[in-house]
Amino acid sequence: MQGTLTRRRFGQAVLAFAALATVPLRVFARNKEAFEAVKSDDALKVLFGDKPLTETDSFEFKVPDIAEDGSIVPVTVSTDMEGVQSIALLVDANPNPLSARFHFMPGAVPEFKTRIKMGESSDVRAVIETADALYVATKNVKVTLGGCGG
């Protein structure tokens, strides 16, 4: 009897894993063209269409001025703006500039910490999307040791 329960639970776990394994494919497929873009402007157009970007420094965007290792550049973004739907990170000089895009459910706290790869010194942009506007902050990061294939 004990062996049957173990096999049943194993079977359920395998089915659950198989169902969850398909989720990332659907999530990434939605932004595939943006992640494959070779220019920041092209990635932004795919993600947000023709919405104008408003330069701002009204949200917290932390990225080091000098990154000693381009393969692990820490980034922190947080804001108290209302109605944030997503935040995207772009590294202009990378072969594929869109590094990440985070979506937020209504009522969620729009903040995250992550690490990105940078192949060379570049501007890094954080783009916050709300229902009616796009806000962008830009910081220049000098990379002293290569990250993306360098």
TrEMBL record:
Keywords: Signal. Residues 46-148 form the Ig-like SoxY domain. It comes from the Bacteria. Pfam families: SoxY (PF13501). InterPro entries: SoxY, SoxY_sf, Sulphur_oxidation_SoxY. Coiled coil: none annotated. Residues 1-29 form the signal peptide. NCBIfam families: SoxY_true_GGCGG (TIGR04488). This is Thiosulfate oxidation carrier protein SoxY.
